[in-house]
Amino acid sequence: MKAVLYKDIQFVEMSHIKKPIITNSEALIKVKYAGICGTDLHIFDGLHPRVRPPLVMGHEISGIIDELNIVRNDIKIGDRVIIDPLISCGHCLPCREGSPNLCPNLKLVGIDQNGGFEEYVKIKDDKLYKIPNSLPLDLATLVEPIAVAVHAVRKSKLLVGDKVVIMGGGPIGQLVAQICRINGASSIVLSEIQPERLNFAKKMALITVSSKEETIKKIMEITKGEGADIVYEAVGIQATYNYITELVKVGGKIITIGAANKPIALDMWKVYFGELNLMGTHVYTPKDIEIGVELLNDYPKVFRPFISKVIGLKDLQAELKGLVDGTSKAMKVLVKL
Ligand SMILES: [Zn+2]
Ligand SMILES: [Zn+2]
Fold first, then answer.
1. Which end of the chain has the least Cβ crowding within 10 Å, N or C?
2. Which residues contact 205 (CB under 8 A, 6 or more apart)?
3. What CATH number labels 2-130+299-336?
């Protein structure tokens, strides 16, 4: 079968590899669409510590069940599915406590086993989610990033009428903004510096700001000087944490979503004196995936604009290069198989 293999730094190649053979509790999925994620770009750039080439990347996958070797009787060959790409151990404390997303041995389809940039992908049957007939397979690949946003917003316990700020207008930040809107946030400010992402946010009817001064000014104007109920940080860099405590109200919440790759300084005096609630969020649980599927099905018009482009497997090298170089400014690129 056809597969695009990651072979070296900034180099993937269309190849022919053996179709996977499934064993107990596994399914073979005929991939229809696979989304390109920031994680794939990280791998492509040679920055992912666990990746050993050759590897088929891609963990945002939708497709059709082609073969099954399972005991579960609620899915069958021909079903339209998306996958949960997280692989947790099932035995550790967080796994036993119902938070598989916090498993210290967490693995991912497209990193620790071959992913979706190939014709057929092998998946454990408990990672399959049937999708409604009304949900198109291209849109369905968005469920994985949506689940990240759903997880963050649910953990933040957003209330109807809350005024929120989102730091960062990448796909996750923009999805958090839309999930906040669906859940009744009343003023949604998105802070971002890239013009293309700001334009996207504007088109999605968000209040956009692009500097520290502008962000503080806007949220203070909206909240009459009191500060946001919740600030979501979807970048993971020092620059946003430098003033994040100035955006949030006394007793408000700071929700971290962006992955920081080094320690970050925060004005802990403000956290202490204002009883700010600082909370980490990491990927998603199976429940967040289920909710993601429902939201996608209920609000297709909200999520359709996130798909900027659909390419073929053969275009993957050029597209990945463009995305890491910044010459391609897409929100979400899907690979159609
Ligand atoms: Zn992803
Ligand atoms: Zn575990």
1. N
2. none
3. 3.90.180.10
CA angle 315, 321, 326 (to 5 degrees): 125
Question: Residue 71: what pLDDT?
Answer: 83
Q: What is the dihedral of CA 216, 219, 222, 223, to 10 degrees?
A: -100
Per the residue annotation, which of 39, 245, 281, 285 is the catalytic one? 39
Measured from the Cβ of residue 50, the count of other Cβ atoms closer than 10 Å reads 10
State in Å: Cα 95 to ligand 2 middle: 4
Q: Name the architecture of domain 149-280.
A: 3-Layer(aba) Sandwich (3.40)
Distance between CA atoms of 300 and 298, rounded to whole angstroms?
Answer: 6
Q: Is position 281 annotated as part of the catalytic site? A: no
Residues 154-170 pLDDT 10s: 999 999 999 999 999 99
Q: Which residues pair with 256 in a beta bridge?
A: 233, 280
The tens digit of pLDDT for each residue in 8-54 reads 999 999 999 999 999 999 999 999 999 999 999 999 999 999 999 99
Ligand 1 centre distance from Cα of residue 148 (Å):
9
Give me the residue spans of the domains in the chain: 2-130+299-336, 149-280
Q: Is 282 a catalytic residue?
A: no
Question: Which parts of the chain have pLDDT scores under 50?
Answer: none
Least Cα distance to 286 among 132, 72, 95 occurs for: 95
Are 61 and 31 a contacting pair, CB within 8 Å? yes
